[in-house]
Amino acid sequence: MVNEDPNPQEPGGTPAQEPGGTPAQEPALRADRSASGHPSSSAPPSTLAQPSGLVHSSSLYPEDLSVIKVSKRRWAVVLLFSCYSMCNAFQWIQYGSINNIFMKFYGVSAFAIDWLSMCYMLTYIPLLVPVAWLLEKFGLRTIALTGSALNCLGAWVKLGSLKPHLFPVTVLGQVICSVAQVFILGMPSRIASVWFGANEVSTACAIAVFGNQLGIAIGFLVPPVLVPNIEDQDKLAYHISIMFYIIGGVATLLFILVIIVFKEKPKHPPSRAQSLSYALASPDASYLSSIVRLFKNLNFVLLVITYGLNAGAFYALSTLLNRMVIIHYPGEEVNAGRIGLTIVIAGMLGAVISGIWLDRSKTYKETTLVVYIMTVIGMVVYTLTLDLKRLWVVFITAGTMGFFMTGYLPLGFEFAVELTYPESEGMSSGLLNVSAQVFGIIFTVSQGQIIDNYGTLPGNIFLCVFLTLGAVLTAFIRADLRRQRANKEMPENSTSLLSQSAEQRPLLGP
């Protein structure tokens, strides 16, 4: 019987006892993801026949999977992840938030500085599948170490670019950070599923995404303060070096903390859905077949498109915000950063509220649709008020838009996990992020050209049109909440569920 008691073990660490005195067992759950690549452990064989297509518990998950228990370490893990995700996100936007200053320092075009942001989007697309394979083969700890190490390396490489002719060096540092992002961006839903209980996963995912958004917020706020718009190149290089040294030190500290604190997994699965997901893994699982199954799932395909439209619009707005504000409010670099900060802080609040609401209500489709519609309304209002020559109005309308636009991001991750369970969370989240990067590049380049040639109003209307399309497509997504059904599965039905797993893996389509 699956034990849902938060303290299911006796003091000596033995499994909880049934009334008859025998250890509580769910033999069919003693299985794991074959993709982990680890050798089988010496776990005792099940007394029941194992369903074909399942593998026995590997050394990665040697414990009795019938024990459902959350770990105290889970909060440290998600907060540490949130912090190094924050550091990486800061490095993404640190150039775009003072676009005009870096243009002057390096003597390059606005488009060249935009590419320092867009390289984050470009590198993600070809590296998704290799990193997803590494995640399944080597686990969360290896991915965390690699992501934080690359983030640290990129930060220090940028310190070699403090002369106007060294723009290629800062490009190299940014490309390294963009590779680090591939090891970071798709992890929130995976960390939430592996470490958190059924009634915490959405909140945990929101906290993990929170760090990325906080990094963007700090990236809007701090660079305009640390790097003033001055003419003296030597003084400007000094101010830029201060920013680079600070972020290099923070990245190094976080890398050390990841080495010390970040663990692969908790001792016991935190939810029945997570326990079942180990058992439902097939030994011949491949990433190509997983991707094929995901793209046969019409609901997931619609979510991939709608998520990409929303997140891509956010990436474009973030990259081009400094340019848009300076056009209407010349000399207001600091306030442009503060407007960006307002967008992201409001979005973080929206993300946390959305996560808590989802954990309580489980209304994934309804919440996602409402937030998307409000994003469209917020974007329209922001577009119409940007040129009113009243900055305080822009702060309010931008913050309202950000509350829904960036608050949507964790909703998309969690909705994807629900629609695709028990497929890998890393793969479903990764495909959402690929869509976001593709649309982000398209929207950033297109909106940038529209702004340069026709002004900010047509550029923002361009985004409004595509966000409206996203809201319409969201209405057609069916709320097929597979993870929720797994969490409600009665223990006595678990064996029959697993016995059908070999045939049910293909049913991950619509």
Automatic annotation (TrEMBL):
<keyword id="KW-1003">Cell membrane</keyword>
<feature type="domain" description="Major facilitator superfamily (MFS) profile">
    <location>
        <begin position="77"/>
        <end position="482"/>
    </location>
</feature>
<dbReference type="InterPro" id="IPR011701">
    <property type="entry name" value="MFS"/>
</dbReference>
<keyword id="KW-1133">Transmembrane helix</keyword>
<protein>
    <recommendedName>
        <fullName>Choline/ethanolamine transporter FLVCR2</fullName>
    </recommendedName>
</protein>
<feature type="transmembrane region" description="Helical">
    <location>
        <begin position="431"/>
        <end position="451"/>
    </location>
</feature>
<dbReference type="GO" id="GO:0020037">
    <property type="term" value="F:heme binding"/>
</dbReference>
<feature type="transmembrane region" description="Helical">
    <location>
        <begin position="391"/>
        <end position="411"/>
    </location>
</feature>
<feature type="transmembrane region" description="Helical">
    <location>
        <begin position="298"/>
        <end position="317"/>
    </location>
</feature>
<feature type="transmembrane region" description="Helical">
    <location>
        <begin position="201"/>
        <end position="222"/>
    </location>
</feature>
<feature type="transmembrane region" description="Helical">
    <location>
        <begin position="115"/>
        <end position="135"/>
    </location>
</feature>
<feature type="transmembrane region" description="Helical">
    <location>
        <begin position="242"/>
        <end position="262"/>
    </location>
</feature>
<feature type="compositionally biased region" description="Polar residues">
    <location>
        <begin position="492"/>
        <end position="503"/>
    </location>
</feature>
<feature type="transmembrane region" description="Helical">
    <location>
        <begin position="142"/>
        <end position="159"/>
    </location>
</feature>
<feature type="transmembrane region" description="Helical">
    <location>
        <begin position="165"/>
        <end position="189"/>
    </location>
</feature>
<dbReference type="GO" id="GO:0015220">
    <property type="term" value="F:choline transmembrane transporter activity"/>
</dbReference>
<feature type="transmembrane region" description="Helical">
    <location>
        <begin position="457"/>
        <end position="477"/>
    </location>
</feature>
<dbReference type="GO" id="GO:0005886">
    <property type="term" value="C:plasma membrane"/>
</dbReference>
<feature type="transmembrane region" description="Helical">
    <location>
        <begin position="75"/>
        <end position="95"/>
    </location>
</feature>
<keyword id="KW-0813">Transport</keyword>
<dbReference type="InterPro" id="IPR049680">
    <property type="entry name" value="FLVCR1-2_SLC49-like"/>
</dbReference>
<keyword id="KW-0496">Mitochondrion</keyword>
<keyword id="KW-0472">Membrane</keyword>
<dbReference type="InterPro" id="IPR036259">
    <property type="entry name" value="MFS_trans_sf"/>
</dbReference>
<dbReference type="InterPro" id="IPR020846">
    <property type="entry name" value="MFS_dom"/>
</dbReference>
<feature type="region of interest" description="Disordered">
    <location>
        <begin position="487"/>
        <end position="510"/>
    </location>
</feature>
<feature type="transmembrane region" description="Helical">
    <location>
        <begin position="369"/>
        <end position="385"/>
    </location>
</feature>
<dbReference type="GO" id="GO:0005789">
    <property type="term" value="C:endoplasmic reticulum membrane"/>
</dbReference>
<dbReference type="GO" id="GO:0097037">
    <property type="term" value="P:heme export"/>
</dbReference>
<dbReference type="GO" id="GO:0031966">
    <property type="term" value="C:mitochondrial membrane"/>
</dbReference>
<dbReference type="GO" id="GO:0015232">
    <property type="term" value="F:heme transmembrane transporter activity"/>
</dbReference>
<feature type="transmembrane region" description="Helical">
    <location>
        <begin position="337"/>
        <end position="357"/>
    </location>
</feature>
<dbReference type="Pfam" id="PF07690">
    <property type="entry name" value="MFS_1"/>
</dbReference>
<keyword id="KW-0812">Transmembrane</keyword>
<feature type="region of interest" description="Disordered">
    <location>
        <begin position="1"/>
        <end position="51"/>
    </location>
</feature>
<comment type="similarity">
    <text>Belongs to the major facilitator superfamily. Feline leukemia virus subgroup C receptor (TC 2.A.1.28.1) family.</text>
</comment>
<feature type="compositionally biased region" description="Low complexity">
    <location>
        <begin position="36"/>
        <end position="46"/>
    </location>
</feature>
<keyword id="KW-0256">Endoplasmic reticulum</keyword>
